[in-house]
Amino acid sequence: MDIETVLPSWDGELCSVLFDRETGAWFVIAVHSTRLGPASGGTRAMVYPSVGDAVADATRLAAAMTIKMAVAGLPMGGGKSVIVLPAPRAALGDDRWRRILRVHAENVQKLGGTYTTGPDIGTSSADMDVLRETTPFVFGRSAATGGPGSGAPATALGVFAAVRAAVAEAGLGDGNGGVAGLRILVQGLGAVGARVAELAAEAGAELLVADVDPERSAAAAAQGARVVSPTEVTRTRCDVLAPCATGGLIDVRVARTLPCAAVAGAANNQLADAEAALVLARRGIVYAPDFVANAGGAIHLVGREVLGWTEDQVVRRTLQIGQTLHRVCADARTYGITTEQAAHALAARRLTDAA
Ligand code: NAI
Ligand code: PHE
User: Fold this and answer.
1) Whose CA is nearest to atom 14 of ligand 1?
2) Mean per-residue pLDDT for 163-172?
3) Least packed by Cβ within 10 Å: which of 89, 177, 284, 332?
């Protein structure tokens, strides 16, 4: 991917790209839309094949945040930051990492509140505490510094609500979202996936897990989960596939053979191409659009830090993700469109109403 290809086909408001000579890191901040309020979305820090790939990721993820906020009914726009690390985090050393965070915070500060960041893959609440030393435009600081912590537990709660709704829509289980005895395959046992796996196991599901980190799969296996090779995730028969790792898992080819009845997970941008949603729908696989299913983290962060909600209010709003998915599935049936299209239409209505 190169910037010349990515940016002309993106309909966002701003994309800043900076290089820091001292650390060798690149910094991308994409503000997709401020129509519903100031843009917000997490900071993703990882090694990328190229800066163009990072810009592609940031711009796509920022657009997904706009839709996520709109569907969740939150008064925020969509943005995202990507830090292109010169080496994996573990190899960077703490001083270099701190400098990277400071440079990023200075960039966020320069936007003057147009964009507020938060945790995402490769960044934690402790990192948000460091950013907060330089800029106030940060969500998800640790509880120790008076913040609400990362949104991961809320994201997991919302994903599980989506799993239950998807199961009911697929006509599986007791018809009311009960998952007892159903095979749920969780790909990615990080902050969100590990909790989704726990919730599924507590509800009586037969748990299958896959992670590229063998220690994480081993920990789940010790709790009774069956371990699946990360390369076999899309070929393993299950009732619900819950992608909770990185995006792009399901392209049109995978969609043609995916052996499950429903897909509901946390990963942003699970579909690698638009046709994948059509193929899933044609095969009768219930697909919970990722930006619907994974809104719990945004609900937690924006609810606590912008809207002054209590934890109970956050939980209530997060559980409504199940109802939102039912509505999206109903709209998809009524209009003969995919759930992805129905959820986009819902977001578009909210964005138009706000104009
Ligand atoms: P994380 O970084 O804590 O966990 C990701 C896990 O996936 C790790 O255990 C990693 O080893 C594993 N993994 C990576 N590539 C894999 C592969 N190819 N196969 C199997 N496992 C693989 O990330 P976190 O916070 O749990 O987020 C997971 C996903 O959910 C990400 O896509 C993130 O953008 C999305 N998300 C997270 C939210 C949050 O509140 N943390 C909110 C909304 C979306
Ligand atoms: N990165 C998470 C997401 O994609 C959490 C987050 C939400 C971070 C909103 C910042 C703002 O939803």
Assistant:
1) 245
2) 98
3) 284
Chain Cα centroid distance, residue 224: 27
Grade residue 354 by pLDDT with cuts at 50, 70 and 90. Answer: confident
Res 135: pLDDT: 98
CB of 121 within 6 A of ligand 1: the answer is yes
Tell me the residue type at 18: L
What are the tens digits of pLDDT across the range 206-255?
A: 999 999 999 999 999 999 999 999 999 999 999 999 999 988 999 999 99
Is the distance from the beta carbon of residue 40 to the nearest atom of ligand 2 less than 6 Å? yes
Q: Which of 43, 213, 236, 246 to mutate to test the pocket of ligand 1 (most atoms within 8 A of CB)?
A: 246
Q: Is 139 exposed, middle or buried (0-12, 13-18, 19+ CB in 10 A)?
A: buried
**Catalytic-role residue among 44, 68, 80, 216:** 80
Check pLDDT > 80 for residue 355: no
The atom number, within ligand 2, closest to the CA of 139 reads: 10
Per-residue model confidence as pLDDT tens digits over 218-232: 999 999 999 999 999
- Per-residue pLDDT tens digits for 168-196: 999 999 989 999 999 999 999 999 999 99
Ligand 2 centroid distance, CA of 23 (Å):
25
